[in-house]
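Please study the protein below:
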Amino acid sequence: MNTLTMLSLSWQHILIVVLILVLLFGGKKIPELMRGVGSGIKEFKDAVKEEDKPSF
């Protein structure tokens, strides 16, 4: 079995994950949670860019 096939997500999987998130965190907490995830990804990308720059 191909590893990529095993790790692929269908719309049903995504729907199940979203429903679980709504049940766990409630509708009001999800935007705050996603904002935190987005800022974490942005900080990670910025750190990777900084590491790629040569320091002379």
